Amino acid sequence: MNLVYLVPLFPLLGFLINGLLRKSLSKSLIGIIGSGAILASFIVSILLFLQVKEQGALPVEPLFTFINTGTFNIGFAFQVDQLSTIFLLIITGVGFLIHVYSTAYMHDEETKHFGRYFAYLNLFVFSMLLLVLGANYLIMFLGWEGVGLCSYLLIGFWFKVDNYNVAARKAFVMNRIGDVGFLLAMFWLLQKLGTLNYADVFANYKNLSGTDITGITLLLFLGAAGKSAQIPLYTWLPDAMAGPTPVSALIHAATMVTAGIYMIARSNILYTLAPLTENVVAIIGLATAILGATIALKQNDIKKVLAYSTVSQLGYMFLGLGVGAYTGAVFHVMTHAFFKACLFLGAGSVIHAMSGEQDMRYMGGLKKWMPITNITFLLSCLAIAGVPPLSGFFSKDEILAAADLHNPVLYWVGVAGALMTAFYMFRLYAATFLGKFRGTHEHHLHESPAAMTIPLIVLAILAVVGGFIGIPEVFAKDAHWLEHFLAPVFAQSKALQPEHLGDATHELMLMGIVTVLSIVMIVWAWRKYSKYQPAAEEETGLGKVLENKWYVDEAYNAAVVKPVNSFGGFLKNVVEKSGIDGIVNGAGRFVQYSARQLRLLQSGQVGSYLLFMVLSIVVLFLIFWNQGIIIAFIQKIF
Amino acid sequence: MIALFLILIPLFAGLVAVFVNSGKGAKGWSLIASFATLALAILSVYSTNHNQLFFNGAWLPQMGSNFSLSLDGMSKMLALLNAIALPIIIISTYRNDYKNPGRFYSLMLLMQAGMMGVFLASDSLLFYFFWELALVPAYFLCSMWGGERRIPVTFKFFVYTFLGSLLMLIGILYLYFKTPGAHSFALQAFYDLKLTQAEQNFGFWMFFIAFAIKMPIFPFHTWQPDTYEQSTTAVTMMLSAIMVKMGIYAVIRWCVPVFPLAVAKFDGLVVVLSVIGIIYASLIAIRQDDMKRLIAYSSIAHIGLMSAAIFAGKEAGLQGVMIQMFNHGIVVLGLWIVADAIEQQFGTRKFSQLGGLAQKAPDLAILFVVMAFANISLPLTNSFVGEFLMLNGLFQYNWIAAAVAIVSIILAAAYTLSMVQKIFYGQTSELTMQARDSAASVNVALAVLVVLILFFGVYPQPMIELTSDTVKTLLAQVKTF
């Protein structure tokens, strides 16, 4: 028995136990089962990781045949290689910490809802593991839609609130738009190659024409844009903040939203062969990075700031993928998982202390009451702002350096976004933790319990040191451990990519400039917002546009949602009722008129109809049992 | 003899039930009979014995018509659906009281017998006989136990399907007189006909319109939402879970293999109509305020995809249709059960008067959410594999058709989740404030369906294997032209 099956099995069991027994188990038992399941998966993941590190990718063995129609055969198979084990460690590791955190954060829920929460969370981890472990696109898709389901269930976790339900539905529907692309890409692959297994697809890419590859990669990217909240499908992610905060940390920051990056990194050879798609990915990624950053500058809800920051950071990852820096993108997935999970959990800790308040205009000075939350939040802010030698510095720099080699314009625009990141993060930090408390319930403020602070500490440590697994060439030769580890996954692409050799002094110089500028932004934001007093008057001009998120939601409503609804109404009330059914009823009336002439034959008594029917059946069966004797008799008469 | 008894049990049980006066007695009797049929249907799935799966008795030998029944993969699957559905329907509506229960359950059983015959008959006259045997009880069930507008609605249903039946009868006779020698009504004799293109075109439309009305395909569908809405829900379940499959089954069994040249000529037209119907019905579903009408339009959209996949004619797509006929029946049954439970309790199906039910009926909410996600074909529910295969077949036929049809999975998510939200989430309404949790009988029926949904969602391969013989035979038959 292969160890890998245990990894998703534990969360699945956790889901079933907590889901079915949620009314009879105690809260502490639910918490232990929920978290324990993920811990068990994490331990097995470490074992698998060590195994892969020793001997490379493990052989793929189907557990059972999922679909075999004769023309194609899709197995339920798992693939354990360098890429999937990295994701396994992130998902189960960060996932475990967030489960532990949740035991305290969700403690005020009724027991049955507490159980429901952990059941959903375990189901999410199960789906996410399926997504990264699948050895073919279809298994990935099972997980892909599975995480979408869990996201829906958890965004709408507090189902009494209508807005939350609307947000949940929006998330699912927008994801579905992306999924259409994913499905079509699979059909295309099946038509051309007759297989969805990664190994077979990547080995036979030569059988695909240029159009095929471009089309398939663009469609897959549509899927990725839905799941990973890229333009034009990003608007669901900020609304998804309606869910409990640990959910935002796990699903809407650290893991699920990085599925698109995983998918493209997994299909790297196809993307490398499709320069058009690569450019689209890079430009959309960069545009999303900038868009997200500008909106984050003007949000007042701490979770919204972090949400747009996530949208923006995901954009950087896509920029990395688009310029062929696959390792850099995966690296940023990892460091982002650490610091963004830490930031969201920190925000949760703040919200917990503020009894549910999320608006930072009513916060301030929390440092005094929440020392651990404060320090971990500060470290994560420094990490995401790209201050060396914290983790975000290395991963973001790797993406930007690759973008620079590709096209300096991408680089400088990317840097502009990075500077905005430094600014809005420290606006958030300073307005929340520094200065004077601006809220009303000062006596409620308290540091969160250990179950919440310990995950914060662990994540903050990782956010600080996590970057050392990817030290760039300019600092030390061959010190980029992650690149070496992932090399087999990206080997095919590497062979096709032209060898870019950056100029070391140029790279160091740019690094220095960006670092200095980032620190300037940090200091600026720090000074400006540590004495923050919310403005009484409304924002005007650009500020108002940013506060209203560039009015994209309004535009989508006017351009898509409303027209679809009114077209549906037109079909229902006009085409269906007066058109098609009108014709049918007209024909019907004609028949009815004719029938009136024949009505005398019908008694209208249902009983007699029934009797006739039964009699006829009996007669027919008599005919049958008598082998046609009656027919012969009738024939004799005539 | 399994084949014969699959029909005889519900037939005779139905004839007996007429004479039962008490509600309890009629329910109990029909439940026992339906379980016997179910046991037999399950047996047939595992049986490979020729004598059990085929039956051939003389019926009207002078006319070249035999009482011949056969069970291949597709027939087994639909017989199984038919046999599973009735006990589920009876259990889930066990608390309901229908006036004249003896007649009601008698008609339900007769309808089941008729549909069973349709799925088994391999003689066209016999097929026609069962087709009508299934329809006549349906008319009575609709017109006697339905809602306020049941009479005009049933009349429309009757005229529409009767027109179809008439055309089919003409088609059958037309083919009959084309058969060589002493003429024959046998399916195989029809398969062996080598008709010219013009002959096929005529025959095709005679058969196809009958089946298109039954499925229904856009624009022959308007009888369906009305009928589903006005019928009492137990009857709606029979119509929607099983009877629409008669149309799909008949196209695969009696139309495509007999008129392949005509199919090759008109496939584009049918695919376009089907795809229009998918989007059209989905868009209308978005605007419904009545739960039954929403499910009706959703079902039209799903059926449209099946018809598109049939006429796309690709192996994967046909395989998808095979398993989706079963899976759609299971899922839609679940949706109707919830609709009935809600209507029985609150006397309304209007979303605007419901809401917040998850607080009052958490078990029903969970079961319904599973149904809802099966209705939008979430992976690892049973409908996913079917839709994946059908869309894949359609894509191979014409990628534009597939790209348009696939938009329905977005629309399905929109209307299904909004239905879930309006009924179960949010604050309770005046009506739902006092709600009770659903009855145990409803939950049991739904739980059985949920198990089926998840089991065949995770492990669909047995269904594919069961029906692959039908697909292969069909494609081989089409190829002979």
UniProtKB/TrEMBL annotation, chain A:
Keywords (A to Z) from UniProt: Membrane, Transmembrane, Transmembrane helix
Coiled coil regions in record: none
First-listed, main subcellular location of the protein, grouped into a coarse class: membrane
Residues annotated as domain NADH:quinone oxidoreductase/Mrp antiporter transmembrane: 136-420
Cell location: Endomembrane system; Membrane
Matching Pfam families: Proton_antipo_M, Proton_antipo_N
Membrane topology: Multi-pass membrane protein
Superkingdom assignment: Bacteria
Record's GO cellular component terms: endomembrane system; membrane
Stretches that traverse the bilayer: 29-50, 86-105, 117-135, 141-159, 213-237, 249-274, 280-298, 305-327, 333-354, 375-394, 409-429, 450-471, 508-526, 609-634
GO molecular function: NADH dehydrogenase (ubiquinone) activity; NADH dehydrogenase activity
Signal peptide (from-to): none
Domain NADH-Ubiquinone oxidoreductase (complex I) chain 5 N-terminal span(s) in chain numbering: 66-118
One GO term of the biological process aspect: electron transport coupled proton transport
Record NCBIfam families: NDH_I_L, PRK06590.1
Full protein name: NADH-quinone oxidoreductase subunit L
Species whose genome carries this gene: Ilyomonas limi
Name of the coding gene: nuoL
Automatic annotation (TrEMBL), chain B:
InterPro entries named among the record's database cross-references: NADH_Q_OxRdtase_chainM/4, NADH_UbQ_OxRdtase, ND/Mrp_TM
Protein's membrane topology: Multi-pass membrane protein
Domain NADH:quinone oxidoreductase/Mrp antiporter transmembrane: 121-409
Transmembrane residue ranges: 28-46, 77-95, 102-120, 126-145, 157-177, 202-220, 232-252, 258-282, 294-313, 325-343, 364-385, 397-417, 438-459
Keywords, comma-separated and alphabetical: Membrane, Transmembrane, Transmembrane helix
Compartments where located: Endomembrane system; Membrane
GO BP field: ATP synthesis coupled electron transport; electron transport coupled proton transport
GO molecular function, a single term: ubiquinone binding
Transmembrane helix among keywords: yes
Coarse class of the protein's main subcellular location: membrane
One cellular-component annotation, GO: membrane
A Pfam family hit: Proton_antipo_M
Top-level division of the source organism's lineage: Bacteria
Family to which the UniProt record says this protein belongs: Belongs to the complex I subunit 4 family.
NCBIfam families in the record: NDH_I_M
Name of the protein this chain belongs to: NADH-quinone oxidoreductase subunit M
